[in-house]
Write a structure and sequence with these properties.
6-stranded mixed sheet; 2 domains
């Protein structure tokens, strides 16, 4: 099998570290790993397949001879490095939001629109974590009848805000257990024993940037240009795995049995739907794996053409690192 030189831009961050782990788990044909990071980390080493690999400085010259670049850096870094990556002849699979809505850049969930990979011009975008989990869960319903609108609420784990999120949650829980005051740093308010109904800044009509991603990215991934989504994104005191409550509305009725059967057979999904026996998706069960669990499937009582469901998925893996590596696997397959 052909071997590939794979660079990870942002190799020392939470998503970059997860990418390294998943490359090993999935036996991706890496001939050479090139971990890239800032000057603060350059020169240090990390483990890959039991060997020490030296972290290199992320700069324009670092991409010569690289086949695939997995991006795990912020928007500004992705934008700054993309021209050099493309010029070097590598394909940039970027986890940031820098290029997601660029009409010349495919936005891919491999279980949903793998054929779109063929249209890349050197850059492919990884969608938002909540979008990936939700679209993986509902795409099977879209194959029964086109989804017209979606109403969604996300319950997003603190690790979605980076490595500091879980640390802050645990520190606050410990402080409160001792009767001490908390001092928010990562989040605008205390997150322990609390919910914060804002992720991202205001973008339009009182909706945040995180909330608008579900509509804008969903349209592009599922090829539904008229899809309308109303979404509320909430940060919750859960360490890992995002949960989403979503109601899908169609032009024609979809039965609960149709929905269950479609989701049970959908790639990347696991049906967990038995309310009587208390079987439904939960963050603890979906953590550290790559399948989106789907349950609580029921009729939407406000719409005879609606179906409501609940889904959970690991946002660091399927919502970021694994999805990017699945995209890379599509590249080498095609």
């Amino acid at each position: 099998m052909k071997q590939y030189t794979v660079a990870i831009l942002g190799a020392t961050g939470a998503v970059g570290q997860e990418m390294i782990k998943i490359l090993q788990e999935r036996n991706f044909p890496v001939g050479k790993l090139v971990p890239l990071a800032s000057a603060r980390s350059a020169g240090k080493t990390l483990k890959f397949r039991g060997e020490d690999v030296t972290i290199q400085l992320a700069c324009e010259e670092a991409f010569e001879g690289v086949d695939i670049v997995l991006g795990a850096a912020e928007n500004d870094v992705a934008k700054a490095m993309a021209p050099a990556i493309v010029k070097a002849g590598a394909v940039f699979v970027d986890n940031s939001s820098a290029f997601r809505m660029d009409p010349n850049v495919p936005l891919i969930v491999p279980e949903v629109n793998p054929e779109d990979v063929k249209g890349h011009k050197g850059i492919i975008s990884n969608p938002n974590c909540s979008t990936i989990i939700t679209i993986t869960a509902v795409n099977a319903l879209n194959s029964i009848a086109p989804i017209r609108t979606m109403t969604a609420s996300t319950y997003q784990a603190v690790s979605g805000a980076g490595a500091g999120g879980p640390v802050e949650l645990m520190e606050q829980v410990e402080a409160l257990s001792k009767g001490e005051a908390t001092q928010p740093k990562i989040f605008p308010y205390q997150i322990a024993f609390n919910l914060i109904p804002q992720i991202g800044g205001e973008q339009v009509d009182g909706y945040t940037s995180e909330e608008m991603k579900m509509q804008n990215e969903g349209r592009k991934i599922m090829h539904l240009p008229d899809l309308k989504v109303t979404c509320t994104c909430v940060r919750v005191p859960v360490v890992r795995s995002h949960s989403i409550s979503v109601s899908c509305h169609f032009d024609t009725p979809v039965t609960v049995e149709q929905a269950r059967q479609a989701i049970a057979n959908a790639p990347g999904c696991k049906l967990m739907d038995d309310l009587q026996n208390k079987i439904y998706p939960m963050p603890l069960e979906t953590t550290d794996q790559d399948i989106v669990f789907v349950g609580r499937i029921r009729p939407d009582l406000t719409d005879p053409c609606g179906i409501s469901l609940w889904c959970c998925g690991d946002q660091v893996r399927k919502g970021a690192a694994t999805n990017a590596i699945q995209i890379a696997e599509l590249l080498i397959e095609k």
